Amino acid sequence: MTTIRLTAAQAMVRWLSVQQAEDGSRFIEGVWAIFGHGNVAGLGEALHAHKDTLPTWRGHNEQTMAHVAVAYAKANGRRKAMAVTSSIGPGATNMVTAAAVAHVNRLPVLFIPGDVFASRAPDPVLQQIEDFDDATVSANDCFRPVVRYFDRISRPEHILTALPRALRVMTDPANCGPVCLAFCQDTQAEAYDYPVEFFTPRTWFIRRPEPDQRELEAAVAAIRAAKAPLIVAGGGVLYSGAEQTLLSFAKTHNIPVVETQSGKGAMDWEEPLHFGSPGVTGTGCGNDLAAQADLVIGVGTRFQDFTTGSWTVFSAPGRKLLSINIHGYDAHKRAAQPLVGDAKIALEKISAALGHHRFADPDFANRAKWFQTTDTVTAAPKGNELPSDAQVVGAVQRTTGKDALIMSASGSMPGVLHVLWKASQGGYHMEYGFSCMGYEIAGAMGIKMAKPDRHVICMIGDGSYMMANSELATAVMMGIPFTVVLTDNRGFGCINRLQKATGGAAFNNLLADSYHVNPTDIDFAAHARSMGANVVKAATIAEVEAAMTASKSATIPTVIVIDTDPAPGTGAGGTWWEVAVPEVSDRKEVNEARKAYEAGTRAQWLVN
Predict the structure, then answer these.
(1) Architecture of domain 379-563 in CATH?
(2) 73 — pLDDT class (breaks 50, 70, 90)
(3) Neighbours of 49 (CB within 10 A)
(4) Superfamily of domain 213-366, CATH level 4
(5) Where is the Thiamine pyrophosphate enzyme TPP-binding domain (predicted)?
């Protein structure tokens, strides 16, 4: 057996550099790194030697550079990924939140945090977490609940098994998710005679499991027996690459479609069978269909509570649930009739079995009425009042074309965009599995790296911007252009509305209602400008529209700041969402909200 002597870090980097995606490109496109003790000497040296075959990029914050990797994987439909490395201690634990984002959204990211010394000779080293009862524990054990595969590399030969296992998980369509390879810092620098064949290039294919014939026949029978079926398209449609298959299936059998946050953009909004979104952030026409559906056909969806209105929106008596999903865990939820398999393959097989079976037309007039409502809600304000978030979204909508890709993650914008944004196919990216504040700017950067030909637009509130904005400077440095629309409502406007809706007093959400000694007046335009971005402080909706048009030709990020009214919500659509309201309170508003809460819970579908 021919061998080559390398350090463990050198061997890891060399192996990663020759792992290929299905299109022949690198599966791990590059490595985000903030160096510190624990990775600078070992991995840092190895990455420098391979900088021409496996790029290394420098971030400003471990969490947000990992968000770039998460967004990149999502924008690539899980067919490509990135790695992220940090020092031990806070550098590693900073990435745990991003790992949770990847885990909930079932996305492949390779986390390589530095770890303590395998030898334990210098213990305790700087930043080491010491467990008084377990000497094997380090800070990196925090990753265990939020990754699909965890391994600690404490011997150089460990990577011979750990690396293939890692990519097996990252390319598994059912169990896909983040991986953590905690890399002991002395092990990184230790040499070993590795088999040369270990570094042979390998292509990783995403398999397409076919459904069980019995489940398939049962699914076809359920659809044939239905009178008013409704398709709920989830993120699994996009991960499967089943967008055209879904469109063909819906049109062949005349079944209306609604899209979850993860599934939005699977179908162009102008398709007549596209009825928007269901649930808490649902369209009026979509929720009407959901209430009438006798068979709900979930395709690649987890049926999160926003999609289901906390299991109240699919309310037709005797309605049934058919769940097409790559993972049995999801397919069996809520006593659904399961069809476990790849979404594209499953839809093709069901359609073939159904033949020319078609259903009656849905209420197209109701759909047209809804989009008229959307245009009204998103129209520019007629007076000098501050615009709502919906009106800002309208300004962005009117100045973009089919190349636009809108994204967000938290606060008011996910709800406004889900219910009101008219998305082209592939033109929507929402991190609403974990709804992580601070994902937005880093995520926009990752999307642009994956989709350089799309006009990427990041919609963000002032609260999320304050959480994490540092990768704006990284995007400027790397020349990665995207547009940030920052709506300043002076606090956490979304949660302030929820607080008031559940009977609470305005408290600790808007800056004006929070404890302070000095008044707060943050100049977001000046802040973004200090990081090198193009900046426009818009006073009106018309100025937002002009700035949006100009941003399309920019070569660095553009930030458009506008003050907004924190009071209005989406202005249309939606349904009940379960947020527990106190059973007893001195506030009459809380007691009234409790009555509404109890009424909502009585309408829930409780079968689990």
Answers:
(1) 3-Layer(aba) Sandwich (3.40)
(2) very high
(3) 14
(4) TPP-binding domain (3.40.50.1220)
(5) 412-561
